UniProtKB/TrEMBL annotation:
GO biological process: cellular response to abscisic acid stimulus; negative regulation of gene expression
Keyword Signal: yes
Protein name as it appears in the record: DUF538 domain-containing protein
Signal sequence interval, chain numbering: 1-28
Keyword Signal appears in the UniProt entry: yes
PANTHER family according to UniProt: F22D16.19 PROTEIN, T31J12.3 PROTEIN-RELATED
Length: 174
C-alpha cells in the first residue's frame, strides 16, 4: 500500500518563498493599521494635495517603489483659473524620495489637449510636473490640501486659500 504524500514540504517551501524571497508589499487596509496613501506620500517628501480626496486603497512594493492607488471611480476637477485634471480609477507609477516616475492614470488639459502627467519631482519648495515634452513648476504650498473630485477647491462656492496662489503655466523643459 502506498503512503500518502505529505504536504509539509510544499507548505514549508511556499512559506519560505512568500516571507523570505518575495519583495515586501504594503497594502492599505480598512482597520487603520497601515498608513493612508496620503501619509505615505508625505513619507516620500510629497504633499498630500497631489492626490485628490477619495483614495480607497493602495499597494506599494517597497523594494521597487512600484505603487497603485485606487479610487471608487475616475475623478475629475478643475482648478480655478488653471487646469482641468483627470484621475483614472487606478493610478500607478514608481515612487522614491522626491520623485514619482512612470506615472499613469493622471491627465491634465492644456489648451485643447489632454496630456498624461508622467513624472513629478520635488525640488525644494517647488513641484515639477512633466508631461514628457514640457513641464511646469508649482509652489509646494499649492498642494498642502487635497482637492475634491468634481469640484476641486471650490466645492461650496468658496475658493480655498490654496487656489488663490499664482500658478505658472506649462512651459518648455528645454
Amino acid at each position: 500500500m502506498e503512503r500518502p504524500m505529505s504536504l509539509l514540504p510544499i507548505l514549508t517551501a511556499s512559506f519560505l518563498f512568500i516571507f523570505c524571497v518575495a519583495p515586501p508589499l504594503i497594502t492599505a487596509d480598512t482597520d487603520g493599521d497601515l498608513p493612508t496613501a496620503y501619509s505615505l506620500l508625505q513619507s516620500y517628501n510629497f504633499p498630500v494635495g497631489i492626490l485628490p480626496k477619495g483614495v480607497v486603497s493602495y499597494d506599494l512594493d517597497e523594494s521597487t517603489g512600484k505603487f497603485h492607488a485606487y479610487f471608487n471611480k475616475s475623478c475629475s476637477f478643475a482648478l480655478q483659473g488653471s487646469y482641468q485634471l483627470d484621475y483614472k480609477s487606478t493610478i500607478s507609477g514608481y515612487i522614491s524620495e522626491n520623485k514619482i516616475t512612470k506615472l499613469t492614470g493622471v491627465k491634465v488639459k492644456v489648451l485643447f489637449l489632454w496630456l498624461n502627467i508622467v513624472e513629478v519631482i520635488r525640488n525644494g519648495d517647488e513641484l515639477e510636473f512633466s508631461v514628457g515634452i514640457t513641464s511646469a513648476n508649482f509652489a509646494i504650498e499649492e498642494f498642502y490640501e487635497s482637492p475634491q473630485c468634481g469640484c476641486g477647491f471650490d466645492c461650496n462656492g468658496l475658493k480655498s486659500k490654496t487656489d488663490k496662489l499664482g500658478r505658472k503655466h506649462f512651459v518648455s523643459s528645454v
